[in-house]
Specification:
eight-stranded antiparallel beta sheet; Glutamine Phosphoribosylpyrophosphate, subunit 1, domain 1; single chain; Rossmann fold; alpha/beta; about 600 residues; 3 domains; binds glutamine hydroxamate; seven-stranded antiparallel beta sheet; 18 helices
Length: about 600
């Protein structure tokens, strides 16, 4: 999703702003822009295109303070006129992430005052409002405070004024912002990745915070306008972890990083076993008391939640419901006190997920357990219990290592719940814990099958539709496989519980319908075999991904890939890999923009 970078320094900030935007490019965007101020000069540069185009257009420019923006359009087409920064009156430039929900009423009000609008965006009202209040107060800080008091919706903003060249202001409500502290220079951005080349000293702004940046200092005010101190942290992330190395795409690199990502995620689990303490000091008591589990998530994280339902129900007997965050947040209904809300998000900044978590807290005396890949993100700061996955920076828009490490975290959660509630025998607990030790090796072995999946992809790339089938924990993996193919290869795909086939989708099956089937060696195998026969009887082509021991499933399958080993309850983690590789190679074959699929963004910080 779109990104913001701001800088004020005694040196030229243009190269830093452009480098910062480049590091945010992975999030997906459609246009970009710069606001620049230097000794009375005040300008903006915008393009309906990439950061490289912006850099070319800004060549030779220099500034001691500036704002930079990549836009992922929500209101108005991705044109140069709609690109940020937006101009307020003749002296204010702003950049905005998020959505201003009352923009229409504000626009009417500002038009009546004589302001002229040059874009279709919701964001432009912010620029004119700041200008309007500045005319009255002659104080940039209070003008921005008055402006944000008028806004409803979600925002992270940066503000620059021609008449205040020694100040930049940023503020957040509902969208993330982080300050970067330097010596004689200060920065802010929507994501730490943008600031890592210039500083590792960061302050994560809290909900409703506003910060005034001067070269020598930053001042922070809370939502009530009171000056506050926020803790500065040194962020321990290597600035070069975004390097592609010898890989062709970030998605490919991230697929192959999964053994390491899983090993890192399991590090404390291997030391301690699947203990509740992994989730926080109060976890054990909360796990014992929980009457029910509600999982909320979006996209791939939602699929991880669907898998976890099987594990938690089976090992603990607790009732588990799994909700799409954007639906849950608008549903009515109460939560039973003590319910454990499991909120899953790679970035910890997903707008719908944060809203769902806050809504859950209003429905009952619930506790929130976050599963997240980004330390200090809004989700981690607002949760009661936390498990941080250690996937590392994920740049490809289509989630790969973040998804499999979420699955691992949820597996550990299910086992820790069972351990606290004493619902499994000691031997069963031990078996579940020990199965995790073999996981990185199993994953490594599946990665070695990349070449065979590349062959499958050559065939799959010719189709316009595909079905993915699975049962039990592999049903959500079928959903995830279909999502990957849609996202990056632009092939219409549907995931189904195999037993649902005859309730509708079988009508679509003919020789033009590839059906990718995920088969585990479990007690439902024979049922799945019958579903495959139903497909083959209608000339559908079965592409079978099978654990060894699923021999009865083979006859009639168009293509078969047997995985190196059966992985028991961890089958959903292992089965995800061939599906990722299949989508990846199909997308390469079709020549799509694998890492930045059209219309999509990485961290979805707008509703
Ligand atoms: N609503 C604004 C900003 C969009 C945004 O935050 N995208 O991620 C616009 O449409 O310009």
């Amino acid at each position: 999703m779109c990104g913001i970078v701001g800088a004020i320094s005694e040196r030229n900030v243009v190269p830093m702003l452009l480098a910062g935007l480049q590091r945010l490019e992975y999030r997906g965007y459609d246009s970009s822009g710069l606001a620049l101020a230097q000794r009375g000069e005040f300008s903006r540069v915008r393009v309906a295109g990439r950061v490289a185009d912006l850099a070319a257009k800004a060549a030779g420019q220099s500034a001691l303070a500036g704002l930079a923006h990549t836009r992922w359009a929500t209101h108005g087409a991705p044109t140069e006129l709609n690109a940020h920064p937006h101009l307020g009156g003749d002296s204010v430039l702003i950049v905005h992430n998020g959505i201003i929900e009352n923009h229409a009423a504000l626009r009417t009000e500002l038009l009546a005052q004589g302001y002229q609008f040059t874009s279709e965006t919701d964001s432009e009202v912010i620029a004119h409002l700041v200008h309007h209040y500045l005319e009255r107060s002659n104080d940039l800080l209070s003008a921005v405070q008055a402006t944000i008091g008028r806004l409803t919706g979600a925002f992270a903003i940066g503000v620059l004024s021609r008449d205040y060249p020694d100040t930049i202001i940023c503020a957040r409500r509902g969208s993330p912002l982080v300050l970067g502290l330097g010596f004689g220079e200060q920065f802010f951005a929507s994501d730490i990745a943008a600031l890592l080349p210039v500083t590792q000293r960061m302050i994560y702004l809290e909900e409703g915070d506003l910060a005034e940046l001067h070269r020598g200092e930053v001042r922070i005010f809370n939502a009530a306008g009171e000056p506050v101190t926020r803790q500065a942290r040194t962020v321990d992330v290597a600035a070069d972890s975004a390097d592609l190395g010898h890989y062709r795409h970030y998605m490919q690199k991230e697929i192959f990083e999964q053994p390491v990502a899983i090993t890192n995620t399991l590090q404390r689990v291997i030391e301690l076993g699947c203990q509740p303490a992994l989730f926080g000091p109060t976890a054990e008591a909360l796990f014992v008391a929980a009457p029910a589990i509600r999982i909320v998530a979006c996209g791939s994280s939602y699929h991880a939640g669907l898998v976890a339902r099987y594990w938690i129900e089976e090992w603990t007997g607790l009732p588990v419901s799994v909700d799409i965050a954007s639906e849950y947040r608008y549903r009515k209904g109460r939560e039973q006190d003590g319910t454990l809300i499991v909120a899953i998000s790679q970035s910890g900044e997903t707008a719908d997920l944060l809203a769902a978590m806050r809504s859950a807290r209003e429905r009952g005396d619930v506790k929130v357990l976050a599963i997240c890949n980004v330390p200090h993100s809004t989700l981690t700061r607002e949760s009661d219990l936390l498990f941080l996955t250690q996937a590392g920076l994920e740049i490809g828009v289509a989630s790969t290592k973040a998804f499999t490490t979420q699955l691992v975290a949820l597996y550990v959660l299910a086992a820790a719940l069972a351990s606290s509630r004493k619902t499994l025998s000691a031997a069963a607990e031990r078996e579940i814990s020990e199965s995790l030790h073999r996981l990185p090796v199993l994953v490594e072995e599946v990665l070695a099958m990349d070449g065979q999946l590349e062959e499958w992809a050559q065939e799959l790339a010719h189709y316009h539709n595909a079905l993915f089938l699975g049962r039990h924990t592999l049903f959500p993996i079928a959903l995830e496989g279909a999502l990957k193919l849609k996202e990056i290869a632009y092939i219409h795909a549907e995931g189904y519980a195999a037993g649902e086939l005859k309730h509708g989708p079988l009508a679509l099956v003919d020789e033009d319908m590839p059906v990718i089937v995920c088969a585990a060696r479990d007690e439902l195998l024979e049922k799945l075999v019958s579903n495959m026969r139903e497909v083959e009887a209608r000339s559908g082509k079965v592409f079978l991904l099978a654990e060894p021991g699923c021999e009865s499933a083979h006859p009639g399958a168009h293509r078969v890939l047997t995985l190196p080993a059966a992985s028991g309850p961890l089958a959903p983690v292992v089965m995800t890999l061939p599906l990722q590789m299949l989508s990846y190679h199909t997308a390469c074959r079709k020549g799509t923009d694998v890492d930045k699929p059209r219309n999509l963004a990485k961290s979805v910080t707008v509703e």
